[in-house]
Amino acid sequence: GATLGILGSGQLGRMLAQSARRMGYRVHTLSPATDSPTGQIADRETVAAYEDLDAIERFARGVDAVTFEFENISSAAADVAARHGPVRPRGEVLHLCQNRWREKHALTDAGLPTAPYEAVESLEALPAAIARLGTPCILKTAGFGYDGKGQARINTVDDAAAAWAAIGRGPAILEGVVDFAAELSVVAARGAAGDQVDFGVIENRHVDHILDVSIADAPLTDAQITRAREIAAAVMEAFDVVGVLCVELFLDQNGGLLVNELAPRPHNSGHLTIEACPSSQFDQQLRAVCGLPLGDTQRQRPTAMANLLGDLWAQGEPDWAAALSAPSVNLHLYGKAEPRPGRKMGHLTASAPDRDEAVRRVQAARAALVRPSNP
Ligand code: ATP
Ligand code: MG
Ligand code: MG
């Protein structure tokens, strides 16, 4: 049988490995961590730094195709792996998505709409950029941000120095604040022959800049759905993606769509596809990366997903039986030993005849996890 290599070892790799194992693949993973969410599922876990190009070369030699679940793999590492077989998506896609300047410029070049933005190289350049863009705006570090880390809101030009200090490191990008009506995502997959599928449009609700709840489908007009899917298809083609990519979108107050950012891999908002669709985002990733035909992405029933952050462990082990007392609820835990606040430990999904009921069920299940505190 064939062996899939995964660079990175978090929950995204774990769920990919579960799909791969189910379809008869062997799975090798490489990351700096031991006993990782992916390593627990893989046939072989290599512990090495992503900067260790010799280790990555040895790893790539032992597998038939390489993909990644950690976004900040260097171009050098992707190039070394590509000497020994396909790396999908290709290193250039990773490189574009690792940096908000490159990503935004590539989107603009492809004719795709984003929030207004300015590249800001230094604190000295920031006041002029604020003046050009207007307030309020958001300063984001160009690389290595996730879950809203490395971002600061700017309400007046006097906030410039504090915002620059708060994001930790430059260079940065300054974006106009979008007064969005909703946040959306489209998870799409593209095969080596250019064949494409997507999972429709998902609605995303954030709390403290971390994804909290996702719902399939988003409540949009047919024209908005078509437009969102067209944008995703255009990104897949413009970036020549082979694999899975998620486009995060804002729906503005006029019903227009703007691209927020891209993730060149399965996305937290697509976790609900495991229960909602015959072939999940991880199944599609496996199929695309390994050169198999893509699968059926049709959503079967309205489904909602709620993230489980480490905060839920504050009073001890959550009450899993209580959450699962509704039969439409499914539980996913990622095998992480330390439940830190803000850390994604797992998620719940619930299906229902309509989307509001799916949201209600998944919220109720999550609320039931927290045991009543002693009087
Ligand atoms: P992740 O990769 O975990 O999705 P991130 O740290 O890369 O997050 P973004 O997606 O850029 O960050 O921003 C996080 C959230 O902050 C967005 O989902 C949105 O709620 C809000 N946000 C970001 N940019 C803007 C903007 N220009 N206008 C309004 N809200 C924004
Ligand atoms: Mg991001
Ligand atoms: Mg985001």
UniProtKB/TrEMBL annotation:
Pathway: Purine metabolism; IMP biosynthesis via de novo pathway; 5-amino-1-(5-phospho-D-ribosyl)imidazole-4-carboxylate from 5-amino-1-(5-phospho-D-ribosyl)imidazole (N5-CAIR route): step 1/2. One of its GO terms (cellular component) is cytosol. The keyword ATP-binding applies. Coiled coil: none annotated. ATP binds at residues 100, 140, 145-151, 175-178, 183, 206, 260-261. Residues 104-290 form the ATP-grasp domain. Its EC number is 6.3.4.18. Keywords: ATP-binding, Ligase, Nucleotide-binding, Purine biosynthesis. It is an enzyme of class 6 (ligase). The keyword Ligase applies. It catalyses: 5-amino-1-(5-phospho-beta-D-ribosyl)imidazole + hydrogencarbonate + ATP = 5-carboxyamino-1-(5-phospho-D-ribosyl)imidazole + ADP + phosphate + 2 H(+). One of its GO terms (molecular function) is ATP binding. One of its GO terms (biological process) is 'de novo' IMP biosynthetic process. InterPro entries: ATP-grasp, ATP-grasp_carboxylate-amine, ATP_grasp_subdomain_1, PreATP-grasp_dom_sf, PurK, PurK_C, PurT/PurK_preATP-grasp, Rudment_hybrid_motif. NCBIfam families: PRK06019.1-1 (NF004675), PRK06019.1-2 (NF004676), PRK06019.1-3 (NF004677), PRK06019.1-5 (NF004679), purK (TIGR01161). Catalyzes the ATP-dependent conversion of 5-aminoimidazole ribonucleotide (AIR) and HCO(3)- to N5-carboxyaminoimidazole ribonucleotide (N5-CAIR). PANTHER family: PHOSPHORIBOSYLAMINOIMIDAZOLE CARBOXYLASE, PURINE BIOSYNTHESIS PROTEIN 6/7, PUR6/7. Homodimer. Belongs to the PurK/PurT family. HAMAP family: PurK. This is N5-carboxyaminoimidazole ribonucleotide synthase.
